[in-house]
Amino acid sequence: MKKSVLFSTMAAAALVLSACGQAPESTPTATNNKTDSTGEATDGAKDGVDYAKFKACMVSDEGGFDDRSFNQSGFEGLKKAESELGVQVAMAESHSPGDFQQNIDSLMGQNCNLIIGVGFMLNDAIRDSARANEDVHFALIDSRITEGQGEDFKVLDLPNAKPLVFNTAEAGYLAGYAAAGMSESGKLGTFGGMDLPSVKIFMDGFEDGMKKYNEDNGKSVTLAGWSKDSQTGQFVGNFSDTNKGKQITENMLAQGVDIVMPVAGPVGSGTVAAVKEQGKGSVVWVDSDGFESTSDGAVMLTSVVKEIGQSVFDTIKAAAEGSYSSEAYVGTLENGGVAMAPFHDFEDKVPAELKDALEKIKDQIISGEIKVETENQP
């Protein structure tokens, strides 16, 4: 899961990560020889840009590229750039934090022009590599580039490191409103993978949306697992322990919660398993559209989506065309960088008046009439 930052809690969290990784894996794919629609070979040049000479590379966090969440979304953006632009690509999958720097170094040895790190946990490795290799472009998904902690904590502006961050509180607000409107028990639940701003921002928006529903409808739907005011709640401690995610969900279901939003990447599959086994409740997925990215669409009420793949594609395209910028990309409802996914199998179960209210609220967030505010803002 994915991770945007402004506060020292991120740096402090990073310090507790161990460095006991396996040897990094790298899977390069070159695309030097393409064919056009007639079957004739081309040199990769399009509109005066020789994309085939550009190499875009990516390093996953410990969730891996098949996490059905933000690593997978980033990987899909990389592959889209390969297939549609004709750039060369290479990727390295991490199994633990100890792999991050090794994987970046491996890709550096493959002459990558742009190296993209997926997730806040790669902050230090991307930052240090960008400083040491000023002729290479870097990007970091879900996080600003930072260093230090406590009073020394600061957000950096490196000329060759671009943050790709997402204001998921806006889409989370819509999901919280929708979940409150669909809950039969009047009890929602959420929990995080790690105590990071990029996780808590989802939960902040989700709680605020629930409160807005209560205000609009005279209801008293409650939220287990998170308090925006105190910034405290339940966390797994990582993005890999699906059993703990399942246990947390089972406890919530036992307390009467009937809709759960796990902000924990692959750990969310533990939530899905608990809901399916007990035959009750539904899930709000995060990062990707869970109905499409998992095989468990039947329990997915909706998802809080980051358009990570498109931001990756756009960054690669700009860099290949010589217009790379280190200015942060911030995904919002207005620019389409974040969204609430369709209801899919729940479409016929969601009342028309709730759908109308959600459309109105979305417009009000975009116009600024409703301000979705959180200290975890990207």
TrEMBL record:
Membrane topology: Lipid-anchor
Annotated signal sequence range: 1-23
Pfam families membership: Bmp (PF02608)
Gene3D superfamilies assigned: 3.40.50.2300
Organism name: Bowdeniella nasicola
Protein name: Basic membrane protein A
Biased composition annotated in UniProt, kind: Polar residues: 24-40
Spans annotated as Disordered: 23-44
